[in-house]
Amino acid sequence: MQIVDVKPEHLEAIARIYAAEVVSSPATFDLEPPGPEYWEAALRDCDLEAGRLLLIALDDSGEVLGYAKSGPFRDRAAYEITCETSAYVAESARGRGVGTAVYRRLLELLEESPLRLAVAGVAEPNPASTALHESLGFERVGTFEGVGFKFGRPWSVTWFQRSLVRV
């Protein structure tokens, strides 16, 4: 497996991975999969200095197994030192360390940026995502109860944070 920057030819595979989560999982609160223009903008906006990254995990044949993404936490200027992160893995590639590998590389790159903090929200229950975040040094900071509504019911989101400042 190799972890690389996303190229335009990978966008369709990333969109498929995310769309599968949108329609079948509360892991994302999108109700409809975003169109190609969303992914094109995410790639175009990649900028390490701003904490906007998009990485993929590829198998030996070049198949996209999963991806990790970082972007703005909030649109207020004072939040520019914080990014929100996420990772998604194709269902067929789960349980093979893909999420850990691609997310770890994302965090290593973010540690080289001017940013100071990464945050991530996990819709509950999601023990695999909770374990992934904790294994990568994220700390649980609190839960918003019933903050999202999808599939006919409310979902809670636990927020995690991780320092990006090397000690």
Keywords:
167 residues; 7-stranded mixed sheet; 28% helix
Summarize the structure.
The protein has helices at about 10-25, 35-45, 100-110, 125-135, and strands spanning about 1-5, 55-60, 65-70, 80-90, 115-125, 140-150, 155-165.
Which stretches are poorly predicted, pLDDT < 50 over at least 5 residues?
Answer: none
Mean pLDDT: 96
| Rg over alpha carbons | 15 Å
Query: Total helix count?
Result: 4
Oligomeric form: single chain
Could you say which structural class the secondary elements and strand pairing correspond to?
Answer: alpha+beta
CA-based shape: globular
The side-by-side strand order for the widest beta sheet comes to 1-2-3-4-5-7-6
- What is the terminal-to-terminal distance? 29 Å
Q: Tell me the number of strands.
A: 7
Largest sheet: 7 strands, mixed
Roughly what fraction of the amino acids lie in strands? 25-35%
Measured as a percent range, the helix fraction is 25-40%
One letter per element, helices H and strands E, the order comes to: EHHEEEHEHEE
